[in-house]
Design goal:
By secondary structure, this protein is an all-beta fold. The protein has strands spanning 2-7, 10-13, 18-26, 31-39, 46-51, 57-59, 67-72, 77-82, 91-99, 102-105, 109-114.
């Protein structure tokens, strides 16, 4: 059984930066892919960025060049560095991880970008 706890959301002006963190805990044998998704009001949840255990990454086109995903396998933690934030990045951001071959989600953290 695993658990994901996110932190780092908040309110920021357009052009600013935020760093999200997500720590996994529980009876962990292995964590494979970890990622960040987001859901804006009235929209479907979408993938933002994902990273494999080996460090391979992929990003949504809308965040390429602005967001960077990274992970610390020793700490079972994934990060999302968000730079040059835009109002359209406003959403609830969810952490996702494949822990012991099962899919887990965090509770979500709000990111609001003001214009």
């Amino acid at each position: 059984q695993g658990q994901l706890v996110e932190s780092g959301g908040g309110l920021v002006q357009a052009g600013g930066s935020l760093r999200l963190s997500c720590a996994a805990s529980g009876s962990i044998i292995v964590i494979n892919t970890m990622g960040w998704y987001r859901q804006a009001p009235g929209k479907q949840r979408e993938m933002v960025a994902r990273i494999t255990r080996g460090g391979s990454t992929n990003y949504a086109d809308s965040v390429k060049g602005r967001f960077t995903i990274s992970r610390d396998n020793a700490k079972n933690t994934v990060y999302l560095q968000m730079n040059s934030l835009k109002p359209e990045d406003t959403a609830v951001y969810y952490c996702n991880a494949l822990i012991n071959w099962s899919d887990y989600w965090g509770q979500g953290t709000q990111v609001t970008v003001s214009s």
